[in-house]
Amino acid sequence: MPLKHVEENATVQIRCAQAYGSEIYVGCSNGELVRFALQADDPNKLESYNILSRQIVPNEKPVDDIVLVPCLGRAFILSDRILHFYTLPSLDPVSPSIVKPIRHVVTFTVDHRDLQRPPISLSSTSMALEAEIPLPQGATLSRRLGRSLCIADKEFYSMVDLEGASLLPVIPISQAPDPDVTIKPSITIVGENEFLILSWTGANTIGLFITGEGEPVRGTLEWGSHPESLCLDYPYITALLPNGSIEIHSIETQSVVQVIAADDTPTNPQNPQQQSRATLVSILNGYLVPSTQRSEKMRTTRVQLLRAPPTEQPA
Asked: Is the pLDDT of residue 206 over 70?
């Protein structure tokens, strides 16, 4: 999606994006939320996503994250450590009289199982504090699967048992001897009671599969450089590397099954160094993708019908 479709100003960048059905939601560095919808006005032309609405988050700060919760009909949007709530699919702000924005949010997560549930009918929306679990080193990233919460602080990955209120350190985010190198943590939910976390060794990055109890399972994945982002499409893990190339691993064999070379085509003439592949985003519930093959395969055609012989009428 070219940046020019989001904002004419070259200084504005896409920070995050999510999609659901025939809608795409984009968060920008200027605090703008842009809603795209798939429209097919002419049956003879390829369908395309067009801007349906755009608005600015209340604080006009960069949008850091968008999480869609279809079962609640809500979008959770993090900006400047404030968690805002919007309705789906219209992206209208939820009234503060129903749910107030939450301040001082460093990171947040929604149970992975709830993200995959079908929409339900809501008579009301409310929030309540269930428990407080101290995190001595804080957290910068988190992913939840039932009672298991995988978090990353500035140095370690840890598993938190939400029911037992216990914390177990698992592995450093960086094992490199140079402590000044900042490594971006990565946590991916692979399946029921299974997470994938990445650790930089100084020479390469290893991907470790662990259970909700912090125990290693399967083998390990390996990349020559630290991935910018990961996507799961079971049984494959797709990684975007710093040079713009994409590597696809098999989860079951831990081997590389495909490598896609970097795309050197500049997307922003005012910034030729900007790569066309900014990040990879997982869309849990899928979304519609325009395709010329669909139109070609759905051409009208003649079908010969076989008529049943007439039934005999009783005398």
From this structure: yes
